[in-house]
Design goal:
The protein has 278 residues and is of the alpha/beta class. The chain contains ten helices and eight strands. Helix 4 crosses helix 5.
Length: 278
């Protein structure tokens, strides 16, 4: 583990496992979680001989619960600082949900320009934009995200429990057996972070328009999405992102939920490995 300090004083926590000489894979977690959400992937890929790196986004996990800077520009700049601190080259970036937006914004605005990136993976990711707008009529109305903010402010602990035990992993589906351990681990990670960061982060993941980022990315990109994703609907995310990217492959997973990296880690890990090795 390590910790680096940004120019505004924010401390960013990161993990760095595996041989320093191996090709690095950097993982970008979803809202409101932490790098711990990648346990199943980091253990798998370090076992495959890769160097695996993951950080806790500012205000999340073990990073500083700072009150400001909870937007994609700061998120991407923090990633760039970790990458430069560790001097990572030919890095594969894998982002889930909000982390997919962060990874895309980093690659488009820092990574490709610096020549440090090799490939990108977007899993259940928020790009191009979640919010319903004139240019994005298939998005979710602002009232959905206002309700998220209201529930978070009223009782964050209860809100997070409801998300984890319901739509995030598809545990609200009649044919799915909920895992209390997975629910508790999601809740644990969420409650480690700061309420202000998570509140502001809703705007960051829902209102940021990544269209220009996606259009500018030239490296090979794998877009992975479950067609039963109740958090980030596939028709207004992966389907559109695949069309905007210059060099992409789209994998759609029948019946898989938003949290498929946990519930179906065996399938996801093998597909990730195949893409990285291709």
């Amino acid at each position: 583990m390590g910790m680096i300090t940004m120019t505004d004083g924010t401390e960013i926590y990161y993990k760095d496992w595996g041989p320093q000489s191996a090709q690095p894979i950097m993982f970008h977690h979803g809202w409101p979680l932490s790098s711990d959400d990648w346990d199943a992937q980091m253990l798998y890929f370090v076992g495959q001989g890769y160097r695996v790196v993951a950080h806790d986004r500012r205000g999340h996990g073990r990073s500083s619960q700072i009150g400001e800077g909870h937007d994609m520009d700061h998120y991407a700049a923090d990633v760039a600082a970790v990458i430069e601190h560790l001097d990572l080259q030919e890095t594969v970036h894998i982002g889930h949900s909000t982390g997919g937006g962060e990874a895309a914004h980093y690659v488009a605005n820092h990574g490709e320009r610096q020549g440090r990136v090799a490939k990108l993976v977007l899993i259940g990711a928020v790009p191009p934009i979640m919010l319903k707008t004139e240019n994005n009529p298939g998005g979710l109305p602002i009232e959905v995200f206002d309700d998220f903010r209201a529930q978070l402010a009223a009782n964050r602990a209860e809100f997070y429990l409801n998300v984890a035990s319901g739509p995030f992993y598809g545990f609200n589906r009649p044919d799915v057996e909920p895992s209390q351990a997975i629910i508790q681990n999601w809740w644990r990670q969420g409650m480690m972070g700061g309420a202000k960061a998570h509140y502001d982060g809703i705007k960051a993941f829902s209102e940021t328009d990544f269209t220009a980022d996606l259009k500018s990315i030239s490296i090979p990109t794998l877009v992975m999405h479950g067609n039963d994703d109740q958090i980030v609907p596939i028709e207004d995310s992966a389907i559109l992102a695949d069309k905007l990217l210059k060099n992409s492959t789209l994998n759609i997973y029948e019946g898989f939920p938003h949290g498929m990296c946990t519930t179906h880690a065996d399938v996801i890990n093998k597909d990730l490995l195949a893409f990285i090795q291709d």
